[in-house]
Amino acid sequence: MFLQNTFVYNLFFDLNTQKMSTTTSILRQKTSLQESVVDILNKQMAVEAHSSALYLSISAWCYAQGLRGTGEFFRKQADEEREHMMKIFHYITHAGALAASPEVTNVERNFTDLRSVLVMALDQEIMITENFNKMTEHCQKARDYQTAKFLQWYLDEQFEEEQQARRCIEIFDQMNPKDALYDIDREIHDLKKGE
Ligand code: FEO
To answer: What's the domain count of the chain?
Structure first.
């Protein structure tokens, strides 16, 4: 890497031409991240912030229904989503780029019944997994293998979170909700025991 005026010249070996190539970027002087990668990371921060707000809203609804165990489950889930957001925030800022503090709007507040809430949570997790798959693909195409490696943590986390969200629905469906809402609530609570 050579410094010249205000530009940084990044040298790399072009496999097609079999020659050394140069690219210039003022942004790359300040951060190891490409603009498009910063952009998708910031967008995902907004998704995580929205997830946190959604789960907190679900938690409040559950408590209001007397479903304290499930309310606690989603309160913890809301905390975890904020942690996911902050992990991206730290990655962006430590890489020298600018993280955007996301605005959270349009948070659902009207829920009808526990099962539809659990299905909504599973759909949310599936959507987030898809995001991370696409982000990882983007980083690999952009040859940003460091960020692709960073995103692997989220793929592992999503695998667990999807499993947990599916288990909530299984518990609901395997117990007769008319007779066992108390037990369902306790079982869902226990999925996050020790966290
Ligand atoms: Fe942070 Fe469950 O997505």
So the answer is: 2
- SS3 for 24? strand
Centre of ligand 1 to C-alpha 49, Å, is: 9
Structural domain of 151: 33-190
Label residue 14 by pLDDT band (50, 70, 90). Answer: low
**Residue 159: inside a domain, yes or no?**
yes
Tokens 């960073």 correspond to 150
Q: How far is the CA of 107 from the centre of ligand 1 (A)?
A: 16
CB 165 within 8 A of CB 122: yes
Q: Are residues 60 and 42 in the same domain?
A: yes
Q: Is the CB of 51 under 6 A from ligand 1?
A: yes
150 pLDDT higher than 60: yes
Nearest CA to ligand 1 atom 2: 125
Q: Return all residues near 119 (Cβ < 8 A) that are at least 6 apart.
A: 169
Instruction: Give the CA diameter of the chain.
Output: 75
Per-residue pLDDT tens over the stretch 85-124: 999 999 999 999 999 999 999 999 999 999 999 999 999 9
> Is the model's pTM score more than 0.90?
no
Ligand 1 within 6 A of CB of 47: no
